[in-house]
Amino acid sequence: MEKIPFITKEKAEEICKTYPTPFHIYDERGIRENARRVKQAFAWNKGFREYFAVKATPNPFILKILQEEGCGVDCSSLTELEMSDACGFSGSDIMFSSNVTPAEDYRLAYKLGAYINLDDFTHIDYLEQLTGIPETICCRFNAGGKFTISTHIMDSPQDAKYGMTRDQMFEAFRVLQKKGAKRFGIHSFLASNTVTNEYYPTLARQMFQLAVDLKNETGADIRFINLSGGVGVAYRPDQTPNDILAIGEGVRKVYEEILTPNGLGDVAIFTEMGRFMLAPYGALVTRVLHKKHIYKEYVGCDACAANLMRPAMYGSYHHITVLGKEHEPCTYKCDVTGGLCENNDKFAIDRMLPPTEIGDLIYIHDTGAHGFSMGYNYNGKLRSAELLYKEDGTVQLIRRAETPADYFATFDFCGIMDKYLNK
Ligand SMILES: *Cc1c(COP(=O)(O)O)cnc(C)c1O
After folding, report:
1. Would the CATH topology of 28-277 be identical to that of 280-411?
2. Do the Cβ atoms of 308 and 367 come closer than 8 Å?
3. Long-range contacts for 130-133 (Cβ within 8 Å, ≥24 apart)?
C-alpha cells in the first residue's frame, strides 16, 4: 500500500519556522480513529480494554488522547507508573507488566491499585513481603518452544526471558490462592511485530485453553486474559496491514469455541498494544544537511539514530518520503544517514529516492511507537521535540527539544558544567 505522509511539504516548512528539525510529529486524527477501530473490533467482549504500552510512546499528551478513547495503560517501570498516575490513570486503568522488578516499582504499582502481572514464580514471595498479595493478581505465561502459525515460525518463546512455565503457572495459582488472591488474570506475549491477522487468534487459543485448565485444576476465579502486544504494522509499502476487525472476529470465534462452553463466558479480554496503536501515526521529520559521494552516495540528515534507533539496532525498514517530491521517480540510490560517529547510523541503505538535495525535508514514516522513546544521547546528541498535529490542523508542542543544559543537568552537583547549565 502506498505510504502517504500525513503532512505536506508546505505544512512541514510552516512548522519548521517555529520548531526546527528534527522533530517527531503525531497525527491525532489517525490515533483516535485507530483506537476506535480497536474498541469496535472487540466490542463483542463486555470487559474488553486496551492498555496502551507506555514504553512505545511515553508522552502525557498522547496518553491523554488514548485515555479519552477509553484506553488504560500498560507500565513496566517506576517512571511509567508515575507518568500514568500524573495523567489520572489509577486502579484498574493500569496493568503493571514488568520483569526483574525493583521493590519501589512494585510498591508504587500496589499503591496505585494497578493490576500486577507477575513475571516469575519467585515474585510471589517478593511481592508478599513488600506489599502483601492483592486480591486480583495476574501471572505471565511463557509457552516455551517455538510459536508457529500453521507451519511458519513467528518467534521462539523458549529463548525469551519472560513469564512462567506451564507447571509454574499452576503452582503460582495454588500458592497465590493460599496467600489470599481471589481473582486472577493471565498474560502472554509470544511474538513481536506480527503482520498477520492470525497472531491474536492463535495466541488466544493457547491462552483460553490454559485458562480452562487452570480453572479446572485450581478452582481459580479467572477474570481476564491479557493478549499483550505484538500486533504489528506494515512498515514496508508491499506489506498488507493487519485488519483489526478481522483480528477481533478471530479472537471472538476462539472465545466462543473454548471459553463460553467451559463456563468462562464472562472473562474480559485485555490487550497491551503499543506499536499497533501508535507507530503509523508518528513520523520523524529531518532536513538534509549534507550530501557526499565516495564509494556510495550519502544523504546526511540533522536527525540520527539517537532520534530513531530501530534501523541501527534491528536493521528495521522505515519508509522514507522526500517531502514535495512524492510524485517524482525514485532514480537516486543512496544511504540516508545521521551524524553519529557510528557506522550503523543509517536510516536507510541503498534506498531508491527521488533526486534529493541539501535542504530537502525527509519524512521517515511509522516512528510513532518505539521511535522517540528508544532515543539516547550518544555523541552528546540531543533528543528532539515531539509535536502533535491536531484534528483542527494546528500543531501543538507536546515535548520541547532537549538543550545542552538538559544534557549536562546530571552534573548540577559539582560546578564544573555550570557555564552551560543556565544557572
Ligand atoms: C513492549 C510490550 C508491549 C507492547 O508491544 P508492541 O509490540 O508495541 O505491541 C506490551 N506488553 C508488554 C509487557 C511489553 O513489554
Report:
1. no
2. yes
3. 130/103, 130/106, 131/106, 131/107, 132/180, 133/176, 133/179, 133/180, 133/181
Would you state the pLDDT for residue 406?
Answer: 97
Q: Which helix (H) or strand (E) holds 119?
A: none
Instruction: Dig out the grid coordinates for 32 from the structure.
Output: 483516535
Average pLDDT over residues 90-103: 98
- How is the chain split into domains, by residue range? 28-277, 280-411
Class of CATH domain 280-411: mainly beta
Residue nearest atom 13 of ligand 1, based on CA coordinates: 97
Here the contacts of 239-243 (C-beta below 8 Å, separation 24 or greater) are: 239/1, 239/195, 240/1, 240/195, 241/1, 241/195, 242/194, 242/195, 242/196, 242/197, 242/276, 243/197
**Per-residue pLDDT, 422:** 80
Coil/strand/helix, residue 312 = helix
Which atom in ligand 1 lies closest to the alpha carbon of residue 55? 1
Q: CB under 6 Å to ligand 1: residues?
A: 53, 55-56, 74, 76, 97, 189, 192-193, 228-231, 272-276, 369
Question: Ligand 1, closest atom to CA 192?
Answer: 7
**Mean pLDDT across the chain:** 97
Model pLDDT for residues 105-151, shown as the tens digit of each residue: 999 999 999 999 999 999 999 999 999 999 999 999 999 999 999 88
Distance 86 CA to ligand 1 centre (A): 21
Residue 369 Cα: closest atom of ligand 1: 8
Indicate which residue's Cα is closest to atom 7 of ligand 1. 230
Cα separation values, 13 from 18, 20, 22, 211, Å: 9, 9, 12, 54
Q: Rounded to whole angstroms, what are the CA distances from 346 to 316, 343, 368, 373? A: 10, 7, 18, 18
* Element housing 293 (H / E): strand 282-293
For residue 151, the model assigns a pLDDT of 84
From CA 362, how far away is CA 182, in angstroms rounded? 54
| 273 Cα to the center of ligand 1, angstroms | 6
Q: Which fold has domain 28-277?
A: TIM Barrel (3.20.20)
Among candidate residues 115, 314, 162, the one with its CA nearest the CA of residue 232 = 314
Residue 291, classified by CB atoms within 10 Å of its CB into exposed (0-12), middle (13-18) or buried (19+), is middle
Q: How far apart are CA 21 and CA 324, in angstroms?
A: 16
